[in-house]
């Protein structure tokens, strides 16, 4: 009698269990992607902060008569590293909860160009630093500085 009842309801029980599992999985997947999105956003904002914080000391150390190349080198390396990481720091759908505008993904051409110009500027600066070539180092930094405003105007929301 009891086993008959179980047999009768078994398909329903299985379906219900299956739905629970599916539901559980999809909710977990959403939660995970939200969590990783948050990490992606925090990491890229941190990289922008590093770039900004290094900018003043880079400018001032490169504009002194007796350049402290080891200090410049440390700043140049961390800035360049941040610029490299930023190149892959904007996966699709990572705008929510950040200042990244959706135009990054709908009009990516200029964004990507500016991003690689910034990276290239740091690469040139690093080369200048390695050769202790002040002119090249400054030129690279100038190229970097020429990218910030143009990108923010079009691709970063005012809040
Ligand atoms: C290719 C585009 C691009 C370039 C080039 C760029 N930025 Fe940004 N920047 C952004 C975007 C988009 C955000 C918003 C990121 C977010 O909120 O996730 C941002 C955010 C920032 C932030 C705020 C970080 C935070 O804590 O929220 C700072 C500071 C910053 N940028 C500085 C700079 C400086 C300095 C330069 C030039 C040396 C520069 N950026 C070059 C696109 C760019």
From TrEMBL:
It comes from Photobacterium profundum (strain SS9). InterPro entries: Cyt_c/b562, Cyt_c_II. It comes from the Bacteria. It holds the Pfam family Cytochrom_C_2. The chain crosses the membrane at residues 12-31. The lineage of its organism: Bacteria, Pseudomonadati, Pseudomonadota, Gammaproteobacteria, Vibrionales. This is Hypotehtical protein. The keyword GTP-binding does not apply. GO terms for biological process: electron transport chain. Gene3D superfamilies: Cytochrome c/b562. Keywords: Membrane, Transmembrane, Transmembrane helix.
